[in-house]
Amino acid sequence: MSARPSISRREFLGLSGLIVSFAALPLPLASAESSQQTQLPTAHKPVASDEVDGFLAIDRHGNISVFSGKVDLGTGVRTAITQIVAEELDVPIARVSVIEGDTLLTPDQGPTYGSLSIQNGGTQIRQAAATARRALIRQAAKQLHLEESELTVERGVIKAAHGTRSVSYGDLIGGRTFALSIDKDAPLKDPATYTVVGRSQPRLDIPDKVTGRFTYMHDFRVTGMVHGRVVRPPAIGATLLAVNEDSVKHLPGFIKVVQQRNFLAVVAETEWGAITAAQQLEAKWSDWQGLPDENKLWDYVRSTRITKEDVTSDRGDVEAALAKSAQRLSATYDFAIHTHGSIGPSCAVASFEGGRLTCWSASQATHNLRQQLALMLGIPDADVRVIYIAGSGCYGRNGHEDAAADASLLAHAVGRPVRVQWMRADEHGWDPKGPPTLIDMQAGVDAGGNVTGWYSQFYGPEGVAGRVKLVAADLADLPHEMEMSPGGIINGTAIPYMFPNVKTVAHRLATTPFRPSWIRAPGRMQSAFANEAFLDEIAVATRTDPFELRQRSLANDHRAIEVLERLARLSNWQKRTFNGHAAGGTVTGRGMAFVKYEVYRTYVGMVTTVEIVRATGVIKAKHFAVVQDCGQVINPDGVRNQIEGNVVQTVSRTLLERVRYDRSHVTSIDWLTYPILTFPDVPDIDIELIDRPQEKPWGVGEPSSAIVSAAICNAVFDAIGVRLRSVPFLPEKTLAAINGRRS
Amino acid sequence: MEQHISLNVNGRKVDLKVADPAMPLLYALRNDLGLRGPRFGCGLSQCGACTVHLDGNAVRSCVLPIVSVAGRSIVTLEGLGTPDKPHPLQQAFIDEQAVQCGYCINGMIMQSAALMAANKHPTDEQIKQALANNLCRCGTHLRIVRAVKRATSQI
User: Fold this and answer.
1) Given an 8 Å threshold on Cβ–Cβ distance, is A679 in contact with B128?
2) What is the rounded average pLDDT of the residues A67-91?
3) Residues near A79 by Cβ (< 8 Å), separated by ≥ 6?
């Protein structure tokens, strides 16, 4: 769309402005049953991300609709975006509603990943609101015969600062479009005047969620809808040899077995009918044993062909520095394959009518999914609409998109709307996985104990945060992406520490055992584990307190220093004494870790206290103290909720989690075989936020997760003097490390 | 053969036509009665997302054959309270902002309501033990414990 540098008065006055009714949006927010009755709007609402109308619409009552490409995955983003718009336009929160991730209505702001919803998505919407505000004030000044400087805004009414003249947003623009490009220079409100942003706002979704009124993807229904269930191959790469439809034809409500190459599914009138049919369907598959030996995973990773070297930082001459160093350290860290582990399995509804597909999905990337579904079905993008409905938390690219593809294929095959919900084994077995990661670390230290060289080599699959291929398209042999998309896994390999010679390299691998994707802090968590635990090894080797070591090499970064200073106070950190480790059967230790996320944004430091039972090797994380500087804070309690979640989830990943498999398939297909942390083992958490209202708001959904593994690793070393370099820290590994040290 | 089964759900008598008496209660609640509180998580009685009260006890509706609950009383999250008139636990979950994605929250509240019936003033440890078999992936545990504590300390 061509840029319009300034407001077109003719359009702004509404003389030709398109009247858009937003009252009849097909949003399943109020009533899932009735939503499908509503006619899908065909009005051409602008979705350009450089247009105010892409993001905002104001009706004649002054109610504001926000069209957000970023979606609320259960993190509170909807509430935070509501706060941002309410603040910038000076309207009550209750007047703002947010429409999320509808490809017909919302701009493509990129997938909801990478801790970027507020940092990128929210600031984009804020600029649209600022542009709208300026235009509204200009128009009001004309209408009221006053100078702009004489006007103030209160609850959506522009009024004379002195006097009684006023006009409301609804009167000025209600129901008409702005027809205005977003102006990056439109002035933002001074954060010093904020009354909504920066204050804890109760989340808008919670009352409905605790009373059973919220519409999750799993609750959404459309008229005439039937139910599908997929029947996945028993071995990941198996070929479907034969299907006996007679084995399920007799079941009540049975509609159809859908088979396309290795894609197999059943459709029935009822959900239970579909489940029963999927369980009873007789199918014959070929054998396939293409997975590596689970016990030799790291040999497999190390021997995988390297297709590319990404040098993510290179300062000085690290080889020479290492060669010259008085003391040289090296260690290898590894991090297991993880599943997303959504509590609700992936679910979607699709309807294929008149050559057009509508798909309701909890996808974090509806615009990308639209293109993927169009590619799979061989129809134009324009004939696909994907509408976001919140699902169970996904923490990355889980199975939501794959369930959408399943439903779309089935709707296409049976000519009726189809709902597909995965079973637990589908989710654990077939969601894309966080790939196995191996990191080799080397450092050199001079005679004075100074770090002179730092060299890290990261091994992870090639590819970026692109589009993860859809299981259905792959199995059905329909067009799909061929490249891997593990996420931005190398963005945490470089370090913020100013050592004189640093080299960080990522060896990108041609393949990885399972279809990879991103799970919270992808690669960044693995890098931070290696970086921050290895730095602790250096601290121990040089008998330096770990805070001191970091403070010394971050001297010029005042925000980093403040985080560390506050953390030392919050945790009541006692300088390391190096007087040996505690004796006794159950011992405690403390460890710290720090990250400047992706070496440019959110700072987090944490100290954890752990308890280890020497005889069993069982580690329990008892307490975390966390200090975070994410710049401007939108919703402080929302940020705290994210930090708590990051810590708890990553304690789980660090102590317990690994995907199990044999040569054919994933064997950890439920919560018994893939255990996660439960209430009795959840640590207490103290959090201190450093709010910087005048700074940019940075991401909070990932950064604090990145350093949990290292903090625990360092605390375990403090307690018992063994270095655990392999996540998860299972009791048997810990015991082996303890015994290895004794022998 | 279709079978007729009567139950009492949230204080109302309901009659269901059931094609398969082995169908778990959860599917009747969600699909036949349109309730959204109880949720499918695992179908294996492992996670607790489907928890309802059966004659006052917290049970996992994802594995409970519909035929086994004929004539009995079921209470779901919707029956506990409404947005206008929330149960003290529901209000406490709002006050403590004890939700992220919220998919597990039905189970947390229903299990805690059963705990409260048996133990009016549980300690943190007792709350954690009572919820030990309810899984949350978002890591909302600490807030959930605080919410239950808040609700029980107000009674």
Assistant:
1) yes
2) 98
3) A72, A201, A202, A203, A204, A205, A635, A638
Which pTM was predicted? Answer: 0.95
**Closest C-alpha to A229, from A280, A181, A180:** A280
- The beta-carbon neighbor of B47 closest among A73, A216, A671 is A671
Contacts of B115 in chain A (CB under 8 A): none
pLDDT > 90: percent of chain A: 92
B86·A424 Cβ contact <8 A = no
Distance CA A382, CA A356 (A): 9
Please give the pLDDT value at position A582.
Answer: 76
In chain B the domains, ranked by start, together with CATH numbers, are: 3-79 (3.10.20.30), 81-153 (1.10.150.120)
Q: Which CATH number fits domain A217-287+340-430: 3.30.365.10, 3.30.450.30, 1.10.540.10, 3.40.309.10?
A: 3.30.365.10
Tell whether B8 is within 8 A of chain A (Cβ). no
The domain made up of A437-742 has a fold known as Aldehyde Oxidoreductase; domain 4 (3.30.365)
**DSSP track, A194-208:** -SSTTS----TTHHH
pLDDT band at A232 (very low <50, low <70, confident <90, very high): very high
User: Within an 8 Å CB–CB cutoff, is residue B137 touching chain A?
Assistant: yes
Mean pLDDT of A228-257: 98
User: Is A649 in contact with A434 (CB distance < 8 Å)?
Assistant: no
Computed over every residue of chain A, the mean pLDDT equals 94
| Contact residues, chain A, for B86 at CB < 8 Å | 207, 210-211
CATH of domain A9-197: 3.30.365.10
Across the range A532-559, mean pLDDT stands at 97
At residue B107, does pLDDT exceed 70? yes
Closest alpha carbon within chain A to B86: A211
- B28: Cβ–Cβ under 8 A, 6 or more apart, which residues? B7, B16, B18, B66
pLDDT greater than 60 at residue A13? no
Burial of A181 (0-12, 13-18, 19+ CB in 10 A): buried
Measure B82 CA to nearest chain A CA, in Å. Answer: 6
Contact at CB, A641 and B141, closer than 8 angstroms: no
DSSP A62-128: --EEEEESS--SSSSHHHHHHHHHHHHHT--GGGEEEEESBTTTS-----S-TT-IIIIIIHHHHHH
Nearest CA in chain B to A271: B27
Between A7 and A221, the more confident residue is: A221
Nearest to A76 by CA among A700, A728, A718, A587: A700
Amino acid making up residue A378: G
A24: distance to nearest CA of chain B, Å? 23
Q: Which residues of A touch B125 (CB under 8 A)?
A: 680
pLDDT for position A742: 59
